[in-house]
From TrEMBL:
Pfam family, one: Abhydrolase_11
Residue ranges of every copy of the KANL3/Tex30 alpha/beta hydrolase-like domain listed in the record: 5-200
Organismal lineage: Bacteria, Pseudomonadati, Pseudomonadota, Gammaproteobacteria, Alteromonadales
Protein name: KANL3/Tex30 alpha/beta hydrolase-like domain-containing protein
InterPro entries: AB_hydrolase_fold, KANL3/Tex30_Abhydrolase, NSL3/Tex30
Superkingdom of origin: Bacteria
Length: 208
């Protein structure tokens, strides 16, 4: 499509593929903002889809090379961004913290990262997954539900990272499902996340 302003490579969360309702709704909402979305399933998820098994995700460090490989094959000349839901966003952020010479092995330069429900820590545990945030070489925009058990607003806002921006969705959980009293629904919050993404992409592109 000739009117697209950017390309976004999106990856799935640990437990569901890019064909999940959440990922499909997000893809459609992003496309409405002239963002060309490319979906990528890690090898373990591809095998799960074929076999029907519940094979768990490998350790995050083992998935980063898969992202590097697919980045080197992406066609096109639009400004490129990467991201994903939960684990997918974490993998994208880990890639963004690699040494610049490793990143440059990709055929195209990545300009920023988007995480939809970042898994700051496992629910009810204190093992935070943020050590690499200090090494980010590009902006990371995290769109997070206020009551996400993987990192809710009160605990996350106590931290500051130079290249990280946080955008909060009203009373939303990890899948952007809000409390009924909020007056909004999941579809509206996914649409809001897409709008935030679009505006953030515009701001990043304007600075390049």
């Amino acid at each position: 499509m000739t009117n697209m302003k950017a390309q976004l490579l999106l990856m799935h969360g640990a437990g569901a593929s890019t064909q999940s309702p959440f990922m499909q709704q997000l893809t459609l909402a992003l496309t409405e903002h002239n963002i060309q979305v490319s979906l990528f399933d890690f090898a373990y998820m591809q095998q799960r889809e074929i076999s029907g098994s519940k094979r768990p995700a490998p350790k995050a460090a083992l998935l980063v090379p898969e992202l590097s490989s697919v980045l080197s094959t992406l066609p096109g000349d639009l400004p490129l961004f990467i991201g994903g839901k939960s684990m997918g966003g974490r993998i994208a952020s880990l890639w963004a913290a690699l040494e610049p010479d490793i990143q440059m092995q990709s055929a195209r330069r990545v300009q920023g990262v988007f995480a939809y429900g970042y898994p700051f820590h496992p629910p009810k545990k204190t093992q935070w997954r943020i050590a690499h945030f200090s090494n980010l070489s590009m902006p990371l925009c995290i769109i997070q539900g206020e009551r996400d058990p993987f990192g809710h607003r009160l605990e996350v806002e106590a931290h500051l990272w130079p290249k990280v921006t946080l955008q909060w969705l009203t009373t939303a959980d990890h899948d952007f499902k809000p409390l009924q009293r909020s007056g909004v629904n999941q579809a509206q919050l996914i649409a809001q996340a897409a709008l935030i993404t679009s505006e953030s992409i515009d701001a990043i592109i304007s600075k390049t």
